[in-house]
Structures are given as structure tokens and as C-alpha cells.
Design brief:
The structure is a single chain. Helices cover about 45% and strands about 15% of the residues. By secondary structure, it is α/β, with parallel strands linked by helices. Helix 2 links the parallel strand 2 and strand 3. The longest helix is centred in the first third of the chain and has 16 residues. It starts with a strand and ends with a helix.
């Protein structure tokens, strides 16, 4: 499958591990080098800003989608190809899903997990069937992956982990699967 656009869900903070921003920047570089349009949350801070800057540094294309309420919080990015301001988070997520061929999940907080689980749920319900990649930078998602394995073991999921998403430990691994 050829990807023309990929949604990246990630934190608007940088986190404690410098590898988080390093991987985000590298992912952005790889998206641009492979001529894949980045669809992301529109912020210029943290990992979110790093992935967008990584694309822009390599002359790639970036569309940011940000709700009005986060314009000040996430400090919208003024140096990207296009910034779309929407009414709320639900519209933001829907537009990001609709405009992308796949999703990559980087480290983040509650919002990132919300976006991951909504995409997984929509795949499970056949609302869409977009590939999902989890970038497990520095083992950030190890505990979550252990919990998902337990959900499979306890027979609460309709998909196996392998069918639900692909886990990579660095950005280059993702591009081996694309």
C-alpha cells in the first residue's frame, strides 16, 4: 500500500527523554524524504512541533488541524504548509482520520491515547481500516503494550495485537513497513 498522507498523534510537550524529540524530528525527515504529507495537530511545541519541523526542514508538506480552544495552549505553528482551525476536538480527529492513509502514534498524554484508542476501535468496528503504527521510543509504551496483551489473553479484544497495529522502536523501522 502506498501512503500519500499519514496522521501523527503525539504530545504537545517534549517529555523527559531527549530521544522523544529526536525520533519525532527523524520521523518528520523521513515523511518529507518519502513525499508523504504530514497531517497533525497543528502545534509548534513539544514532540508535535518537532515532527512538523522535521518535515518542513526537508521541504515536505504539513497540514495542521487545531481546534479554536487550543490555539493559545498549543501555540499553533505558523511555519507549516497549511493550518486548519476547527470548532472542536471531535472535528479535529475526524478530519485527521479522513485526510490520512495511516496513523503513527508517538509518545504523548491523554489526548494521544484517546486518538490511538479511537482509531483502534474504528478499525475493530470496520469504520475504517487504516494501518496504525506505534513508535515505542525508549520503551515508552511498554506498559500499555503489556496491558493490551492482557486484554487479548482475557478475551476482551476482537483483534490480535498483530492485526491491530505495528510496533516499532525507531522511525526507520516504520518505513520498512511502509
Amino acid at each position: 500500500m502506498e501512503f500519500k498522507s499519514i496522521a501523527v498523534f503525539c504530545g504537545s510537550k517534549s517529555g523527559n527523554n531527549p530521544l522523544f524529540e529526536e525520533h519525532a524530528t527523524k520521523l518528520g525527515n523521513l515523511l518529507a524524504e518519502n513525499k508523504i504529507l504530514l497531517i497533525y495537530g497543528g502545534g509548534n511545541k513539544g514532540i508535535m512541533g518537532a515532527v512538523a519541523n522535521g518535515v518542513m526542514d526537508k521541504n515536505g508538506q504539513v497540514i495542521g488541524i487545531i481546534p479554536e480552544t487550543l490555539m493559545g495552549w498549543e501555540q499553533h505553528h505558523e511555519g507549516i504548509s497549511e493550518l486548519i482551525v476547527v470548532e472542536n476536538m471531535h472535528i479535529r480527529k475526524r478530519m485527521m482520520y479522513e485526510r490520512s492513509d495511516a496513523a503513527i502514534i508517538l509518545p504523548g498524554g491523554f489526548g494521544t491515547l484517546d486518538e490511538l484508542f479511537e482509531m483502534l476501535t474504528w478499525n475493530q468496528l470496520s469504520i475504517h481500516n487504516k494501518p496504525i503504527f506505534i513508535l515505542n521510543t525508549g520503551g515508552f509504551y511498554d506498559s500499555l503494550l503489556t496491558h493490551i496483551k492482557n486484554m487479548v489473553k482475557e478475551n476482551f479484544l476482537y483483534l490480535t495485537m498483530e492485526d491491530a497495529f505495528t510496533v516499532a522502536s525507531n522511525p526507520s523501522e516504520i518505513f520498512k513497513n511502509i
